[in-house]
Amino acid sequence: MNKKVFISYSREDTSEIRALVDNLSQINLDIWSDQNISAGDNWANLIEENLRKSEIVLLFISPRALASEWVMMEFGAAVALKKKIIPVVLKDTHIPSFLSEHKYIRANSINEAAEKIKETLCKIAEQDASADEKKSRR
């Protein structure tokens, strides 16, 4: 499962997200987040480019993320680009109505969130492999 995954989150949640990404890096994913941006990079262009290249967007929802203009813009762009969006609810955050059409992951800890994300990504990989197999039989 070598999926390109874009991580969208509030910078104020960086420590939690960093721990979660470290946990997810144990499986075969091509993960991109703004932590990959270096000094001197055009960060807006890199965000747009990597969002376009991604297959899946992990949208980390927290009160701070819901207040973040950038997280909301990334969500809007992901919708417009028809990306597979997996909202991951951090803390005890109310789910806004604009996310209600997406099945989301809710977890009480970073480790629980990582395990649920891994399970979801494995299901997606299985569904994709099954669809590919059906196409090749035609």
From TrEMBL:
Gene3D superfamilies: Toll/interleukin-1 receptor homology (TIR) domain. It comes from the Bacteria. This is TIR domain protein. Pfam families: TIR_2. Residues 1-121 form the TIR domain. GO terms for biological process: signal transduction.
